[in-house]
Specification:
The chain has 461 residues and is of the alpha+beta class. The chain contains 20 helices and ten strands. Helix 6 packs parallel to helix 8.
């Protein structure tokens, strides 16, 4: 996909390309700590960069009289010069009206009513109605009523987490609508919450992890008051749904900046709340910076365009604390299983994740002697062979280890009739599969490319 030139600095100043900021009418009162003023920027984004199906969806909605914009992460990434992973749409059309317009529409969610538009090859474009906060006049006594109040684009913008995620792009007029100063923050490479950081992190503590991810992935600075709020409210993460925490940690690992992210999670005390045993081991290591070296190697592979499995990333995360077990005797399988569970606790990774990591670690023991015997080479027939080789590649410590890896790759190529690189791309990648019937699964994206969007908070906001 063609990369867009990063947003130029002139959009943040008063030039003819920027309309005079105007007040925004809202359907619900805005919080006192939020500054709201609409700035319209003429900024043509080449349509070949935008998903063709997303363009068709927006044009159909506007043809029937609805407002419809690209929103969130896709606009942010394009303005930073990065290829977007997905294209989300926000519109004034109600979910029921969206379903009437699109035969390929499926409404999902009882708490947050959304429309998923299904396209070939399992692609799903999410279309959400502009939302607003509740007012005194609203009846929110029914379950999930407060989360399904619909408003205008300004109401929707101030409900988002960070200013850089609240931008909207009008394809028809080629304009960016900035309600909360996100364009200026992109130019200055700053990360700010929409409103007071204390209030926003209390509303949804998972935003702390997202702040860490965005700051390192996009090289953004965090103001001292926001950093202090992150540290102050980190203990609230314990009360968050375990599935959401696992999802965000996996996104951090896939971000291409996982080493720097975990360093910051540790420095802010967030890692102590997420994985206290691992944080304790980092303290005991005496060198907090060196324990993330394998994650940095994962990041280097991702930056080169390589796919890295979840198994390899989790293995790289905990390898420094399990390396001494490779020469352990006894029931090594149970020893590894207990150690992995202890390091990741209380995070609730799936049984599949835990099993695959354990298998990859056990394979490292069998690889020590090289592919010299028939019994050793039987490892290459296992479905976790690619993950084991990938983990070995990440954790090589010297020339002897690299020679051993090359021997295993050569044996793999001969035994499996295909190159390691090709098999690595086709191997067990921990991707979520589509249902046999051809209907997409409830998951929208592969585990390697999970979309980078604001999780649904546990409360308002």
């Amino acid at each position: 996909m063609q990369r867009l030139t990063p947003v130029p600095s002139h959009i943040a100043v008063d030039t003819p390309a920027v309309d005079t900021p105007v007040d925004v009418p809202l359907q619900s009162p805005k919080p006192d700590d939020v500054s709201l003023s609409l700035k319209t920027v003429h900024y043509p984004i080449p349509e070949k960069i935008i998903d063709a199906d997303a363009v068709k969806v927006i044009r159909r909605l506007t043809r029937f009289g609805y407002d419809a914009y690209l929103v969130g992460g896709c606009i942010r990434d394009m303005l930073f010069g990065l290829p977007p992973k997905d294209f989300d749409i926000a519109t004034s059309a109600l979910p029921s009206e969206i379903r009437k317009l699109f035969r390929n529409c499926r409404l999902i969610g009882r708490r947050f009513r959304l429309a998923h538009l299904l396209f070939k090859n399992g692609k799903i474009i999410e279309v959400a109605t502009f939302r607003r906060s509740a007012t005194e006049a609203d009846d929110v006594s029914h379950q999930h009523a407060a989360e399904n109040l619909f408003g205008g684009p300004g109401d929707d913008a101030i409900r988002r987490d960070f200013t850089i995620n609240a931008l909207m792009y009008d394809i028809g007029h080629r304009k960016i609508y900035d309600y909360v100063g996100g364009l200026g923050d992109i130019v200055t490479h700053s990360l700010r919450t929409i409103g007071d950081p204390d209030r926003r992190f209390k509303e949804d503590p998972v935003r702390i992890i997202r702040a860490v991810k965005f700051s390192k992935r996009l090289n953004l600075s965090i103001a001292s008051d926001m950093m202090a709020a992150m540290t102050r409210h980190a203990p609230l993460l314990k009360a968050c749904p375990p599935a959401r925490l696992v999802e965000e940690v996996l996104k951090v690992l896939r971000s291409g900046a996982s080493g720097a992210c975990f360093q910051l999670l540790y420095n802010t005390g967030v890692l102590t709340e997420l994985m206290p045993s691992m944080a304790h081991h980092v303290n005991d290591s005496g060198n907090a910076g060196s324990v993330w070296q394998y994650l940095q190697r994962v990041d280097a592979k991702i930056s080169e365009g390589n796919c890295v499995s979840d198994t390899t990333m989790l293995g790289a995360l905990i390898y420094p604390f399990c390396r001494h077990l490779l020469k352990q005797t006894g029931d090594v399988g149970r020893i590894f299983e207990a150690k992995i569970a202890d390091l990741l606790a209380p995070m609730k990774f799936t049984k599949r994740h835990m099993m695959h990591v354990r298998q990859a670690f056990l394979a490292q023991r069998r690889m020590i002697g090289g592919p010299q015997t028939r019994r050793a080479c039987q490892l290459l027939d296992r479905d976790y062979a690619v993950d084991a080789l990938e983990l070995k590649e990440i954790t090589c410590k010297d020339d002897e280890d690299k020679k051993l890896l090359l021997d295993w790759i050569d044996a793999f190529t001969k035994r499996r009739n295909g190159s390691y690189e090709t098999r690595r791309r086709r191997g067990r990648s921990n991707r979520r599969k589509h249902a046999p019937s051809g209907r997409p699964s409830k998951h929208r994206h592969s585990s390697r490319e999970t979309k980078d969007r604001e999780p649904r908070p546990s409360g308002k906001g």
